[in-house]
Design brief:
By secondary structure, the chain is mainly α. The protein is 72% helix and 0% strand. The chain has a single domain (7-122), classed as Four Helix Bundle (Hemerythrin (Met), subunit A), CATH 1.20.120.910. It contains four helices and no strands. Helix 1 packs antiparallel against helix 2. The longest helix has 37 residues, at 44-80.
Length: 123
């Protein structure tokens, strides 16, 4: 499947990705239920609290959506055989890093390169 990565590592990462995907989907569903069951009406204070809760829900939902996209992309890379290869350096991503962040697209070196470029162009 993936060049030079042990099959056991790939299996562990895939299992972690599938679990993370289920967790993200459960969090989104739970948050939707919570926001939908809140009572409408009330005084200005209640309405302000509700508006803040809805804003927080939208922010969290966007973060979870982005994480879900990363997880789906990692699962697709496993299927295509390109999993574990850094997008920046085209070297293999460290095994410990893959186990810690199975959806990562960058090795430690690749992440440092991206960060230095981001800092350089942020000015």
């Amino acid at each position: 499947m993936t060049h030079n990565l042990p099959e056991e590592l790939i299996k562990q990462c895939k299992d972690k990705l599938l679990q993370a995907k289920a967790d993200v989907l459960n969090r989104v569903q739970s948050a939707r239920r919570d926001i939908a069951t809140e009572e409408r009406g009330g005084d200005e204070g209640d309405q302000t609290v509700r508006a803040l809760a809805e804003s927080e829900f939208l922010s969290m939902n966007e973060r979870l959506r982005k994480q879900l996209v990363e997880i789906e992309m990692a699962l697709a890379r496993i299927e295509s055989g390109s999993y574990g290869i850094c997008e920046e350096t085209e070297e293999f991503i460290e095994n410990d890093r893959l186990l810690a962040i199975p959806w990562t697209r960058l090795s430690i070196e690749g992440a440092e390169i991206r960060e230095s470029l981001r800092k350089r162009y942020a000015r």
